[in-house]
Structure formats: structure tokens, C-alpha cells
Write a structure and sequence with these properties.
Strand content: 25-35%
Number of helices: 14
Shape: globular
Number of strands: 23
Helix content: 25-40%
Distance between the termini: 60 Å
Structural class: alpha+beta
């Protein structure tokens, strides 16, 4: 094998590329289902959870569509399509069940290490928006997955929910908010590290500072994985029966290198972001909530403004943003050539079509890039009128790569979710896209296993149901099951108390 060395004479059962929450979740599930399988994780950076799973590189929201207005689409007749919100919430309940199972079995540490109760709120101002939020509340309040949602247009009530939103605001301004006390904040960095600790404690191998540079299918059906040490050591080669590419923004390039036809036609549109952050205890103490507003015209869904309580390493902070921007990098630690190097004959037309059809998005991103510090502060002050510039610092978040895929009518479409790309034989799969991402990692990975291991999955099903009792059903179809499941997972995760 020329100058490369063989890192494993025996082929791996599972190779996980990328040290983020997706690889960690898939590895943990496989270790429960098939503990005798060999697993190796390849991470290019010096540790796991340093890219999108890092708590300061993402919003950290336990995405359950409790407060994110973009998941409930308003129809021309003024009603709301809540199907996306229900679907996202269903997925988050699956993740909660798996995490609570691992906590109960002692395979994850105390849940406060990675998940904490933080109410989820939506907040709007102006008569039209108040009416909008009231109608959205009416559409959701009786649904079993949104039980406990509250609505108020009374400033005194909203002040009691989170005091920072009211001082300095004109008393004549109509305002309204919804609140779900059972919302959560999730530190996906801590969760990822905990899951990898469980894996390595049970036989998996974690190799850091090892960048995968090639994927090639061999004649015997195994995947040849070429990698190199990030400081230039001799390349190494491993072989694996199954490969998962969970490398975040780096996944597209690796799937393209694999040569599988299923990856043809996919492109990526990178969006960077920034947040304002404060750790001032006096400010943080006055706002315990994740508060989402309405997106600007032309803004992508991931750019909906929000003022969030974050709990990292047991310490609370506040973040506001995101302020979207553009960088051709597909990873925060990536290359300036990531975008041009991703171009292929099969994806040029879809990418050009998306550029033509999303002029509002391009204009929005240009505006964000040109926004001054004063403009950024004004956006925060729309939520928190008395915010002072000196109390906040600007931090750069992680890169998000939105999926571009072929479309028969339009040539190409821009997607704002996640997309699993898998070979026909199920021997390799990867994940493209962004939000809601991490919060729905468990159902995404269970679906991937069902797709890539159809014969094994039937034998695994009883074990899956032990870990995730609602798997294969919809909690929204059974109010009693929904209430019991959410109460049980809330108790195990220590998030069932009202805040």
C-alpha cells in the first residue's frame, strides 16, 4: 500500500468519521445493540466536540419547536400548519428517551452535566404580530406534545417570566409571549464527550488529530479509509465494513470522494454566524429563558433572532443572535477553498439555480456582513431595550452548510434541515445539513441503522424499544402515552420540575 501503514490488520466493523454528536450518538446506539462490534472514531482536531457540537458554536437549544416560530407555517387563510413543529417535537422526545435510558443505566453522568431546565418562549411586538402569536398559540395549546404552553399579552406577566424584556420598552407598544416551562438547554459538547467516554470505556478506539483524506470501496466490499496525522505524519490505512461520515461541513467532500452515486448532485451553501454573549451575573440572573422572535424578511430559518440562557460547565450565560455571515469554509477550522473544491459537474446546475432563486437570502447575508457593531446592538435592544454595549462581547459561532440538492422543476433547491445520504447497499452513510440537527440525533441515527442494516435491525428491535419505548409510533397519536413518556424522561433527566 505504497507509503501508507495499515492501522488495523483486521477490518473494523464500524468506522465513524468526525468527533461530533452524530458520530457519538450512532456509536452509543451500536454499542448497545451490538456490543461485540469493533468501532474506531477518526477526528481531525485535537479533541471531540470542537466544531458544531461545541456549546459556543451552536445555540444549544433542545429543539422541540416550542418557541421557534419558523416551524409553524401560517397559511393564506390565517390558520397554521403545525406538522413540522409536531415532527420536530416527536424527534426530540426520542432523543430524550435515549438519554434518560443511558442515565438510568449509569452510562451517562448526572443529567445536569448536559441538560438543564430552561423555559422556551416566543416574544413579539406590534399589533399584527401579537395577533399572529395568539393564533399560533391557539393552534398548539391543545396538542399533547405542547401541553403546558402559556400565552400572555400582559406586560406584568411577561415581566414575571423574564424581566429583561420590559424595562425601557414603550408602555404603549403591544407585546405578547408564549412560554413552555418544561423547555431545556442542552450542552451538546458535554453530551458528546460523555457519549465518547462511554464508547472508549467499552472498547471503542478514538483517534484524534487524524484527518481522513480518502474513502474507496474495495473489491471485497470493504471500505479503504486513508488518513493522515494533522501535523504531517505518515499516512495510515484502515478497512471497515461500515462507514459513517459525521464530519459536519466536511461530510460533503468525503461523500464525494467515496464515489457513491447517491452523493452526486448534492452541494453545500456555507453560512457563518456570530453571537453577542454576556457572562455578567447581574444580567444573567434576570433572564432564565430561551426567547425566540420572528425572522427578518429573507433571513434563513437558522437566523431567527433569539436571546438564550446557556448553561455550560454549570455556569449560566446569555447569548443573542445569530448575526449571519458568509465564509466559503465548510468548517470553522476548514479551508477557504472548501466551497470551490466542492463543485462538481453534477452539482453546478443545482447550485446556480439556488443562487438565482434565493436572491433575498443573498441580499440578507450581504446586509449582515456589512452590519456595524451599532446595528448588532440595535438588534439586541429590540429584545432587551436597556442592553449596553460594554456588557456584551461578540463571539464567532460554528459554520453551517445548508444542503443543496437537485430538483426536477427548479434545477436545485436549498434545504434547511438534515439529509441522510447512504449507498444502495448500506455500507456507507453520511449526514448533510444543519438545524435542528443535534437535538434530533437519536431518531436520525435510528433511521439510518434501519436503512443500512435492514436484516439486523429486526433482531435489534426489542432492544431499541427498551431504549426508546415510543420507537415506531407517534406520541402525538396517544395523549396519555405522550404525557407518561414526557413525565418519565423528565424525571430521569431532572427536568420535570416547573421553573
Amino acid at each position: 500500500m505504497s507509503s501508507a501503514t495499515v492501522s488495523a490488520q483486521q477490518p473494523l466493523d464500524v468506522a465513524l468519521i468526525g468527533g461530533g454528536v452524530m458520530s457519538a450518538t450512532l456509536g452509543a446506539i451500536i454499542k448497545q445493540l451490538q456490543p461485540d462490534w469493533s468501532i474506531e472514531v477518526f477526528e481531525a482536531l485535537s479533541d471531540v466536540a470542537l466544531e458544531s457540537s461545541n456549546p459556543w458554536n451552536n445555540a444549544g437549544t433542545g429543539h422541540a419547536a416550542l418557541c421557534e416560530l419558523n416551524y409553524t407555517k401560517e397559511q393564506p387563510d390565517g390558520t397554521f400548519d403545525i406538522s413540522s413543529a409536531v415532527n420536530v417535537n416527536e424527534q426530540f422526545q426520542v432523543s430524550r428517551q435515549f438519554w434518560s435510558y443511558l442515565v438510568e443505566k449509569g452510562l451517562l453522568p448526572e443529567p445536569q452535566n448536559f441538560i438543564n431546565p430552561v423555559p422556551h418562549m416566543s416574544f413579539v411586538w406590534g399589533e399584527e404580530n401579537v395577533d399572529y402569536l395568539r393564533r399560533r398559540f391557539e393552534a398548539l395549546k391543545d396538542h399533547p406534545l405542547f401541553d403546558g404552553m402559556e400565552f400572555s399579552d400582559d406586560p406584568a406577566v411577561i415581566r414575571s417570566w423574564t424581566p429583561l424584556l420590559l424595562p425601557g420598552r414603550a408602555k404603549s407598544q403591544p407585546i405578547a409571549a408564549t412560554r413552555v416551562p418544561s423547555g431545556t438547554d442542552v450542552d451538546f459538547g458535554a453530551l458528546t464527550r460523555n457519549l465518547f467516554s462511554y464508547l472508549t470505556d467499552n472498547g471503542a478506539v478514538l483517534t484524534t488529530e487524524r484527518k481522513v483524506t480518502g474513502l474507496k470501496r474495495q473489491r471485497d466490499g470493504l471500505w479503504r479509509i486513508t488518513s493522515r496525522h494533522t501535523v504531517g505524519a505518515t499516512p495510515a490505512v484502515a478497512r471497515a465494513r461500515f462507514v459513517f461520515v459525521g464530519a459536519g461541513g466536511g461530510a460533503l467532500s468525503l461523500l464525494q470522494k467515496s464515489g457513491i452515486p447517491e452523493a452526486k448532485g448534492f452541494g453545500g451553501f456555507p453560512i457563518s454566524g456570530q453571537f453577542l454573549r454576556t457572562d455578567d451575573p447581574a444580567i444573567v440572573a434576570r433572564h432564565q429563558a430561551k426567547v425566540y422572535g420572528k425572522a427578518s424578511v429573507g433571513a434563513p430559518p437558522m437566523s431567527v433572532p433569539h436571546l438564550d440562557t446557556r448553561v455550560v460547565n454549570g455556569e449560566a450565560s446569555l447569548m443573542f443572535g445569530p448575526y449571519a455571515g458568509f465564509s466559503p469554509k465548510f468548517l470553522k477550522s476548514g479551508s477557504w477553498f472548501d466551497l470551490p473544491f466542492s463543485l462538481r459537474p453534477s452539482n453546478i446546475i443545482p447550485m446556480l439555480a439556488v443562487g438565482k432563486d434565493n436572491f433575498d437570502l443573498v441580499r440578507y447575508l450581504v446586509g449582515e456582513l456589512l452590519a456595524s457593531r451599532t446595528k448588532k446592538l440595535e438588534a439586541l435592544q429590540a429584545f432587551m431595550p436597556e442592553a449596553k454595549d460594554a456588557d456584551w462581547k461578540l463571539i464567532t459561532a460554528g459554520q453551517r452548510v445548508q444542503v443543496i440538492k437537485k430538483d426536477a422543476k427548479k434545477g436545485g433547491v436549498l434545504q434547511f434541515g438534515t439529509e441522510v445520504v447512504a449507498s444502495a447497499d448500506g455500507s456507507i452513510a453520511g449526514l448533510l445539513g444543519a438545524s435542528p440537527g443535534a437535538s434530533t440525533a437519536v431518531p436520525i441515527m435510528l433511521s439510518l441503522l434501519e436503512r443500512c442494516f435492514p436484516s439486523e435491525f429486526e433482531g435489534w428491535r426489542p432492544r431499541v424499544l427498551e431504549m426508546v419505548p415510543s420507537f415506531g409510533t407517534k406520541l402525538s397519536d396517544d395523549p396519555q402515552a405522550a404525557a407518561e413518556t414526557m413525565a418519565a424522561t423528565g424525571e430521569r433527566l431532572a427536568i420535570s420540575q416547573k421553573v
